[in-house]
Each structure stands twice: as structure tokens, then as C-alpha cells.
Automatic annotation (TrEMBL):
Domain HTH tetR-type intervals: 10-70
Coiled coil: none
Entry-linked PANTHER family: HTH-TYPE TRANSCRIPTIONAL REPRESSOR NEMR, TRANSCRIPTIONAL REGULATORY PROTEIN
Database matches in InterPro entries: Homeodomain-like_sf (IPR009057), HTH_TetR (IPR001647), Tet_transcr_reg_TetR-rel_C_sf (IPR036271), TetR_C_31 (IPR041583)
DNA-binding region: 33-52
Protein name: Transcriptional regulator, TetR family
Keywords linked to the UniProt accession: DNA-binding, Transcription, Transcription regulation
GO molecular function list: DNA binding
């Protein structure tokens, strides 16, 4: 009698999480299923229930990874700035090069936001992401300005995902300058 050996695959869980992000980017959260994710990850369907308690866990892990990846890039971009003007330019670069440059990431961001708006379980991911963003910004700007910049960044990302008109760097740079100019200078 032949005994089937279970193939040891230490990267299987990781591949499933990556595949989940790919499926969500293509089909949305609503179109993601255990079957689609397993097929994309090239794993048996049973691996889904072996590695995850359910779809909520898959989605939480996938979106946690996605948010962490974006936050690390955000942090690196802001850490490179050594002057106030470089920090302003880093915010513009972040918006135009890091956040709105990838249709896949725009879709994933919007899918996460929609899920978090409906399901409190996912708000922890978005809150942690916002905190990391503001922590990176606070090196260069006061906390109130950080909140405004964070809102600008998120808003322009949403516009880039949904608007039919192109968003120009010069308009973004002007918005960043206005937000980061002390109130006394406006009068």
C-alpha cells in the first residue's frame, strides 16, 4: 500500500496571502473566494481551511500585509527628507510616484477602505496605517498639519482612482505648500 507523503511547503501560507491580494485587485473583495485564491496560489483548496479559519482571516492578513508594505514605503520616502522643502517634495512624490502610480494598489486601497467602512473588524488595519503615516509625517510637520496632509494624500489617492481627469504634480505641490505654510503667512 502506497502512502502519500504530504509535501512540506513552508511558503504556502505566504503564497495564499499574496494570491488573495491579486484576486482582490482583480475581482474585489466580493469576488474573492477560497477557490479563486487557492487556484491563484496554486495550492489545494483544503490549504485554505488548513492555514486560515475563514475568509475574514485571509482578508485581514492580506490587507494587513498590503497596508504594512505601503507604510514602509511611505516611511522610507519621508525618512529621506532632511529639510522642510525636501519633506514637502517627498509628500508630492509619495502621492504621484508611490500611491497613485499603480492601478492595482489604488484598487486594493479602495477595497480596504470600503471593507473597513462596513466592518469594524478591519478598521484596526486602517487606523494602524493612518498612525504609521502620521508618524512618518510628524518628523517634518506639526501634528495638526500631519492630519491635513494625511487627508490630502488619502483624498488625492481616491481622486486618482475615480476621476477621469489627470492630477498634475504642480497642483499637488501647491496643495502641499498651502497646507504646510503657517497660518500667519496666509494673512
Amino acid at each position: 500500500m502506497a502512502v502519500t507523503q504530504r509535501r512540506f511547503d513552508p511558503e504556502r501560507r505566504d503564497r495564499i496571502i499574496s494570491a488573495a491580494l491579486d484576486v482582490i485587485a482583480e475581482s474585489g473583495v466580493a469576488g474573492a473566494s477560497h477557490r479563486k485564491i487557492a487556484a491563484r496560489a496554486d495550492v489545494p483548496l483544503g490549504s485554505m481551511t488548513y492555514h486560515f479559519s475563514g475568509m475574514d482571516e485571509v482578508l485581514r492578513e492580506a490587507f494587513t500585509r498590503f497596508a504594512a508594505t505601503i507604510a514602509v514605503r511611505f516611511e522610507a520616502r519621508m525618512a529621506q527628507a532632511t529639510t522642510f522643502d525636501e519633506a514637502r517634495a517627498a509628500v508630492v512624490d509619495l502621492i504621484h510616484e508611490d500611491l497613485t502610480g499603480s492601478a492595482r494598489e489604488l484598487v486594493l486601497t479602495q477595497e480596504l477602505y470600503t471593507l473597513a467602512a462596513r466592518e469594524p473588524l478591519y478598521r484596526g488595519i486602517t487606523h494602524a496605517w493612518m498612525k504609521q503615516s502620521r508618524d512618518a509625517l510628524v518628523r517634518h510637520f506639526d501634528p495638526s498639519t500631519c492630519r491635513m496632509l494625511d487627508a490630502l494624500i488619502e483624498g488625492l489617492s481616491l481622486h486618482a482612482a475615480l476621476d477621469t481627469e489627470e492630477h498634475h504634480r504642480t497642483a499637488t505641490a501647491e496643495a502641499v505648500a498651502r497646507i504646510t505654510t503657517p497660518a500667519a503667512a496666509h494673512h
